[in-house]
Automatic annotation (TrEMBL):
<feature type="signal peptide">
    <location>
        <begin position="1"/>
        <end position="22"/>
    </location>
</feature>
<dbReference type="Pfam" id="PF04862">
    <property type="entry name" value="DUF642"/>
</dbReference>
<dbReference type="InterPro" id="IPR008979">
    <property type="entry name" value="Galactose-bd-like_sf"/>
</dbReference>
<keyword id="KW-0964">Secreted</keyword>
<keyword id="KW-0325">Glycoprotein</keyword>
<dbReference type="InterPro" id="IPR052437">
    <property type="entry name" value="Pectin_Meth_Modulator"/>
</dbReference>
<keyword id="KW-0732">Signal</keyword>
<feature type="domain" description="DUF642">
    <location>
        <begin position="29"/>
        <end position="185"/>
    </location>
</feature>
<keyword id="KW-0134">Cell wall</keyword>
<dbReference type="InterPro" id="IPR006946">
    <property type="entry name" value="DGR2-like_dom"/>
</dbReference>
<feature type="domain" description="DUF642">
    <location>
        <begin position="197"/>
        <end position="362"/>
    </location>
</feature>
<protein>
    <recommendedName>
        <fullName>DUF642 domain-containing protein</fullName>
    </recommendedName>
</protein>
Length: 375
């Protein structure tokens, strides 16, 4: 009894400590001139090429950077701009950067929109020192050509520099991604609740989503020791993402957010949890569709310890879900819970889609035998 009370007190303390730590400096939303609507002076443009290092208000550039107006042609393609009327394009080895004031020690996620122009394997190198990751942008998940990407970091200082660099996979200088709409959000590290051993089981805490974009936000694969925008969920893959969805634009099984597994078996959504070897556990989750036209036979496969379950869901593409469960016995003091979509699915417009996962819970189903004997 006393032990329980002390446990609860410690738990509450932990909650308050983290709430206090996460006070914000920069408000959530677009970065200053994050949508590039404040234009360079005409004298600092040579055609579309930006000539001055500080020509784009609030940003610093290096290398071949173009200032692109909506409706301008990129080769044969006519690309609309997702936010306002302007975007930038990074040529080979070019970069843009911005200084941001924030709260030291807090975690942030950055969301931005990108469209690739020619190469199949275009990449972006996103850095807030000392963290840096290469985000794959070769797979396009929208018919507009634009996807939103998220990336997270821990602020080691109260002023950091966000750098986005095109490492230049394509040799053609006229190739390179278009970028627009940079936003930031302070992430509140999710807490464990009494009824769920998994944190952020409902995916309510995640990257910034734009109110006016209907295509969700990709959460790219990262190294396991990097902070995930969906923490403590991680996306493990060599190049494939999952998609973070909001209820404003999608059917979401519970709450305001969910995850769509858009990359078949090529990417896994995982979370590690502390377990006791030999004890039985029950994993439950919703599997459904986002109401975004992803029709057909969808299936979510879940794994934990030596157990696995495949939950099939027949989708009309109009929203809906079913519940799946997996009983397993832990074989180690840490268990990795894994979700994958068993197949690639394709919408009528040719873009990739997949089943939605949401409302995931893990509970220990039985007190250990020794403890029961004592009671
Ligand atoms: C990514 O950019 C950072 C900072 O500009 C740099 O230190 C790092 O080497 C780059 N990584 C790659 C693979 O280009
Ligand atoms: C978990 O197991 C590993 C390897 O068996 C061991 O090194 C580690 O100390 C254990 N951790 C806990 C918390 O028991």
């Amino acid at each position: 009894m006393e032990r329980h009370a002390r446990g609860a007190a410690l738990f509450l303390l932990a909650c308050f400590a983290s709430a206090a730590r996460a006070a914000t400096a920069i408000p959530d939303g677009l970065l200053p001139n994050g949508n590039f609507e404040e234009a360079p002076a005409r004298s600092q443009l040579d055609g579309t090429r930006v000539t001055g290092r500080y020509a784009i208000p609030r940003w610093e550039i290096s290398g071949f950077v173009e200032y692109i107006g909506s409706g301008q042609k990129q080769g044969d393609m006519l690309l609309p701009v997702p936010e306002g009327a302007y975007a930038v394009r990074l040529g080979k080895e070019a970069s843009i950067q911005q200084r941001i004031a924030l709260t030291r020690g807090a975690h942030y996620s950055v969301t931005f929109s990108a469209a690739r122009t020619c190469a199949q394997a275009e990449q972006l190198n996103v850095t807030v020192a000392p963290e840096s990751d290469i985000l794959p942008i070769q797979t396009v998940y929208t018919s507009s050509g634009w996807d939103s990407y998220s990336w997270a970091f821990k602020a080691r200082r109260s002023a950091v520099t966000l750098i986005v660099h095109n490492p230049g996979v394509a040799d053609d200088a006229a190739c390179g991604p278009l970028l627009d709409a940079f936003a930031i959000k302070t992430l509140q590290p999710p807490q464990r609740t009494k009824s769920n051993m998994l944190k952020n089981g409902d995916f309510e805490e995640g990257p910034y989503t734009f109110l006016d974009t209907a295509w969700g936000v990709l959460v790219p694969p990262l190294d396991e020791d990097d902070y995930s925008p969906l923490s403590p969920w991680m996306v493990l893959s060599s190049t494939k993402s999952v998609k973070y969805l909001d209820a404003a634009h999608h059917a979401v099984p519970r709450g305001a957010r969910a995850v769509e597994l858009v990359s078949g078996v090529e990417s896994a959504l995982v979370q590690d949890v502390v377990t006791v070897p030999g004890r039985p556990y029950r994993l439950e989750f919703s599997a459904g569709d986002a109401g975004d036209g992803c029709a057909g036979s969808l299936a979510v496969q879940a794994y934990a310890a030596r157990g696995s379950v495949k939950v099939a869901y027949q989708s009309q593409g109009k929203g809906g879900h079913t519940r799946g469960a997996l009983e397993f016995t832990a074989i180690a003091n840490r268990t990795r819970v894994v979700f994958v979509s068993t197949a690639y699915n394709v919408k009528a417009d040719g873009t990739l889609c997949g089943p939605v996962v949401d409302d995931v819970s893990l509970v220990c189903t039985r007190e250990p035998a020794a403890r029961r004997l004592l009671l």
